[in-house]
């Protein structure tokens, strides 16, 4: 798992929301895909599509790209094109403000922060634990890499799993 690449993805998404982009792309990796799907499940972004260097076609009704295998759809991954694959993310806005406010890395490449279930309970209640400050605002989320994939902190407390703290979304 490369936290350097994840830090650049967080910075890229911050810049894309400040620039009011509707569609942006990040490098394709399993870590980035799982984090993007977790962001989509929490409602921060509207769609995640694997594609090539050019954006995939937009859905005629929804307006953002969707995964389709029809003519002109997403091409399959082959050995020749694996290096040029991208994840295309459709960003959401509400009342002319980005839904994805700010992403901050918690674990750094030089200092990885792990947390157990008891520490997570404290963080979810708003207290500090293991160099991780508590969740204070209602829409704030904390993402962890666990044995069961990338999950949000509240979901980790429900399933009683801890893990490596990746990033915080404000």
What does this structure look like?
- This protein is α+β, with helices and mostly antiparallel strands.
- The chain has helices spanning 3-18, 30-42, 117-124, 153-159; strands at 23-27, 45-51, 86-91, 93-94, 97-98, 103-105, 114-115, 141-146, 149-152, 163-169.
- Strands 6, 7, 8, 9 and 10 form a 5-stranded antiparallel β-sheet that branches. The protein has a 3-stranded antiparallel β-sheet with strand order 1-3-2, covered by helices on one side.
- Strand 8 and strand 9 (149-152) form a beta hairpin.
- Helix 3 (117-124) crosses helix 4 (153-159).
- The protein starts with a helix and ends with a strand.
- The mean pLDDT is 89.
- InterPro entries: Ribosomal_uS8, Ribosomal_uS8_sf.
């Amino acid at each position: 798992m490369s936290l350097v690449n994840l830090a650049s993805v967080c910075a890229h998404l911050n810049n894309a929301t400040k620039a009011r982009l509707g569609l942006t792309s990040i490098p394709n990796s399993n870590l980035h895909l799982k984090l993007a799907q977790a962001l989509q499940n929490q409602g921060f972004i509207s769609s995640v599509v694997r594609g090539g260097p050019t954006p995939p076609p937009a859905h005629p009704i929804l307006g953002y790209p969707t995964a389709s295998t029809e003519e002109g759809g997403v091409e399959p991954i082959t050995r020749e094109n694996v290096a040029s694959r991208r994840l295309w993310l459709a960003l959401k806005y509400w009342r002319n403000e980005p839904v994805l406010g700010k992403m901050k890395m918690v674990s750094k490449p030089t200092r990885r922060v792990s947390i157990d279930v008891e520490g997570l309970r404290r963080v979810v209640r708003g207290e500090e634990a293991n160099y991780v400050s508590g969740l204070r605002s209602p829409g704030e989320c904390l993402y962890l890499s666990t044995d069961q994939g990338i999950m949000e902190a509240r979901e980790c407390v429900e399933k009683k799993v801890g893990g490596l703290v990746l990033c915080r979304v404000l």
